[in-house]
Amino acid sequence: MDKKQSVPIIAANWKMYKTLSETEQFITQIKPLIAKAKARVLVAVPFTSLKTAVDLAKDTNLIIGAQNMNDASEGAFTGEIAAKMLTDVGAKFVLIGHSERRQYFNESNAFINRKVKRALESNLQPLLCIGETLKERESGEMEDVLATQLSESLQDVETSSLKNVIIAYEPVWAIGTGISATADMAQQAHHFCREYLAQHWGAEVAGTMPLLYGGSVKPNTAAELLGQSDINGLLVGGASLDATSFAAIVNAG
Ligand code: PGA
C-alpha cells in the first residue's frame, strides 16, 4: 500500500467493557480531541452500546462497529447476533477472529471464513484478526501460522470483495500483556503477510489491503509503529478505553 496516499486506520476494541453511560461519556469526551485527526477512526463497542454509539457518533469522524457476529443469516441460535442486525443498528464494520474468540470460544478458521463471507455480503466491513502465540513464535512457526490463518480465513472470498477487508496482525503474546511487539518485529510480520497476499491474491489486493498492528499499543508506541512501511494502522484494546489515551493514539496517525 502506498503509505503516502493512504489514510491510517486507528481502531478501538473495547472488549467486554463500558456500559451505556460510559459509552456516552467516552464519545462526548473524545469528539473534540480528534476533530482534526487525519486517521480513519473505528470503535468496536459491545452490542449493547451499538445504537447509542452510532447515534452519538453522527457528525463526528468516529465509525462504529461490533466485536463479533454469527455466520448464519438468522436462525435458532440462542444468544447470537446476525450481520443484518448489526447493519440495521448502523454498525459499519465487525471484528472477526479475534484471538480471544479463537482461544476462549474455540473459533476455527473455517467458522471465521464463513463469518468473513457473511459480513461482506451484508455490507459490513470485516476486520479480520490473525496472530501467533508465543509458543508458535518460539518454535519458528510464526509464518506458517499466519499463512494458514490468512489462506483459510479468506478462502473463496471473491477477489473483488477483498478490497473491503481489513487485516489486523495481533501477536497473541502481546495482547493485554503490556509487551508490545517492537516496531521491527511488527514490520517483519506485516511484510510477510503483504508478500503472502501478493503471492496468493495478486499485487493489487496486497497493495491496497490495510494491515493493522495490535497488541499493547500505547500512546508512546503508536507513532513508531505507524512509521513502518507495511503498517497501515493500529488496533487498540486497553489504551482505547480512556478517551485521552485513545485520542493521543489517533492523533499519532
Ligand atoms: P491490547 O488489546 O491493546 O489491550 O493489547 C488489543 C486487542 O485485543 O485488540
Question: What can you see in these coordinates?
Answer:
It contains 11 helices and 8 strands. By secondary structure, it is an alpha/beta fold. It has a single domain, classed as Alpha-Beta Barrel (TIM Barrel), CATH 3.20.20.70. It has an 8-stranded parallel barrel, surrounded by 6 helices. Helix 3 (83-88) links the parallel strand 3 and strand 4. It starts with 8 loop residues before the first strand and ends with a helix. The model has no long low-confidence stretch (mean pLDDT 96). The site of 2-phosphoglycolic acid has 13 residues, from strand 8.
Helix and strand content put the structural class at alpha/beta
Helix content: 40-55%
Overall average residue pLDDT: 96
Order of strands across the main sheet: 1-2-3-4-5-6-7-8
CATH superfamily: Aldolase class I
Distance between the termini: 16 Å
CATH class: Alpha Beta
Strand content: 5-15%
Q: What fold name stands as the CATH topology?
A: TIM Barrel
**Low confidence ranges:** none
- Report the strand count: 8
CATH level-two architecture: Alpha-Beta Barrel
The distinct bound ligands, ions and cofactors come out as: 2-phosphoglycolic acid
Rg computed from alpha carbons, rounded to a whole number of angstroms? 17 Å
